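EI: anyone free to look at a 140-residue chain?
SC: sure, send it
EI:
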Amino acid sequence: MMESTLRLKALLFVTGLIGIGIGGAILFIPAEFHATSGIVVGSNENLLSEMRAAGGALLACALIVLAGAFFSRLTFTALLLSTVLFLSYGASRLVSMVIDGLPSSNLMAVTVFELGVGLVCALALATRKSSANPDGKATA
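SC: here you go
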């Protein structure tokens, strides 16, 4: 039980840090971040606003995921959130591939990574055992 708890906390820690890094980069340096994938953002204020908003949302979610590694009351929520974030990003990229065509090999690799991490989180979510508090409410 202790080993699986440590693995779960490590998973949340790592996925939280990944989300913080990506969300923070999109929020604070979106043009530079997207340039690493060959995307030219330019100086379109409307596009930058949309990108920064998404980056801020990702950063906020990642902070919750990271908190779940340290606070057991947040573990289930953090794991669910991490699962949804990574799988939805990967699935959305697949939708884009069908509608828009194939992106760069870098973005295709990112898709595989996101789906892989999301599936690991989903597996952890499906196999986790909840414990009961003295008040009878289940926790992660």
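EI: The longest helix spans residues 2-28.
SC: 👍
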